[in-house]
Design a protein that fits this description.
The chain has helices spanning 7-23, 26-35, 41-50, 68-80, 87-101, 104-115, 193-200, 241-276, 288-316, 323-347, 359-371, 376-386; strands at residues 121-124, 141-143, 158-168, 175-182, 185-192, 204-208, 218-228, 278-279, 282-283. By secondary structure, it is of the alpha+beta class.
């Protein structure tokens, strides 16, 4: 059995890394974080031209039709440059929700626009409890007649009221997929952000949240009696809680791959610095204690990377269970990758956390990713429940 990447996957990895290093390096992320733009229009268009926005979208909807393992390769490379903007929210949240839950007509309506770069999307889940699972959703979607039923016998609009927090790129996305509770599961509603207020008299408000990572904006999305047409409910019915939680597991896996890329690049920067910095007339890379620390960091990165590839592969194989690999992965990388970046700053002697040094960008991204979709403690508890311990 060959556990390595295919030649096509290796080529994809090289292409993404080379392109990002040349066109959108860390300096690009720093600039976007300072301006609050997320990403330039030209930058987003270039991702569409490279085919990365439609990497996992079937060809019939304008995509390439590859798997989630290929997307994890792209996410890892983006983690290496602290890639800013709505790529994660669009490809790891909005697209999987549309693929898993939307009808064919709904896919044909929204997916081609996402693939060609004319539409950006996100998924709004978390609320006051700051949880990302179906059980954490409190927002109710009720019919204008007063019922939360998903029956097709009535064409009454749905009414959404409540607040969603920590919505990735929620302030700039063209469409916001809002998860709300129905009688028989979770409803995912597609809201055109620009049109919502025109039709509903400011029923949808989006405001930026102040967070540690300025390169990935988060928003507070508030619905005040927001009226949504029935055809905006993905699939025309409720999504099961297991399917919805599977979407969050997928997003968590892709985010973990990004964390692997950030930790790997932090290690590379550290090894380079250790070879340049001198004390007592010799490079500090010759000090055994620092060598041991760097070796531990390397082990953590490689273990994280292997877990990420395996979890992503499980999502491509319908015979594999995904809940356990996704939970184990996020539990491990939330601790391991965070420690790698923290150790990198320590080995830089503190200079890594100055504003001028790029390591502070990796640290802040890692702190944000560490808790997104569930932190290590929550994931370990989930693993224990799955093992029936």
């Amino acid at each position: 059995m060959d556990f390595g990447f295919s030649s096509e996957q290796q080529q994809l990895q090289r292409t993404v890394r080379d392109y990002l290093a040349a066109e959108m390096p860390v300096s690009f992320a720093r600039r976007m974080g300072e301006t609050g733009e997320g990403i330039t229009g030209e930058g987003w268009k270039s991702l569409a031209e490279m085919g990365w926005l439609g990497l996992c979208v079937p060809e019939e909807f304008g995509g390439i039709g590859l798997g989630w393992l290929e997307l994890s390769i792209v996410m890892e490379a983006m983690g290496e440059v602290v890639f800013p903007g709505p790529f994660m929210s669009t490809t790891c949240l909005a697209i999987p929700a549309l693929l898993a839950c939307a009808s064919t007509d709904q896919k044909a309506r929204w997916l081609p626009g996402i693939v060609d770069g004319s539409c950006r999307g996100t998924l709004a889940v978390a609320e006051e409890r700051a949880g990302w699972r179906a059980a954490d959703i409190a927002m109710q979607a009720r019919r204008s007649s007063g019922s939360a039923s998903t029956s097709a016998s009535t064409s009454d609009d749905y009414i959404l009221s409540g607040t969603k927090l920590f919505v990735p790129d929620g302030q700039t996305s063209d469409i916001v997929l809002i998860a709300a509770r129905l009688d028989d599961g979770i409803g995912i509603f597609v809201v055109d952000a620009d049109d919502a207020n025109d039709a509903n008299d400011n029923a949808l408000t989006r405001s930026a949240m102040h967070t540690v990572d300025r390169t990935r904006p988060l928003a507070c999305v508030t619905c005040d009696e927001l009226r949504v047409a029935p055809e905006r409910l993905l699939g025309g019915c409720a999504t099961s809680t297991s399917t919805f939680d599977g979407l969050i597991d997928l997003a968590s896996t892709m985010l973990s791959a990004e964390m692997c890329g950030g930790a790997s690049r932090s290690l590379d920067m550290t090894v380079e610095y250790l070879g340049l910095r001198e004390q007592f007339g010799r490079a500090i890379a010759t000090f055994q204690a620092l060598q041991h620390k760097a070796a531990d960091m390397k082990v953590a990165v490689e273990n994280s990377r292997s877990l990420a590839y395996f979890a992503a592969w499980c999502f491509d194989d319908p015979q594999q269970s995904t809940d356990m690999p996704a939970a184990m992965l996020k539990a491990y990388v939330s601790d391991a990758c965070m420690k790698v970046v923290a150790d990198a700053i320590q080995l830089h002697g503190g200079i890594g956390f100055t504003w001028e040094h790029d390591l502070q960008l990796y640290f802040k991204r890692m702190k944000a990713d560490e808790v997104t979709f569930g932190d290590a403690t929550e994931m370990r508890e989930r693993v224990a429940r799955l093992l029936e311990l």
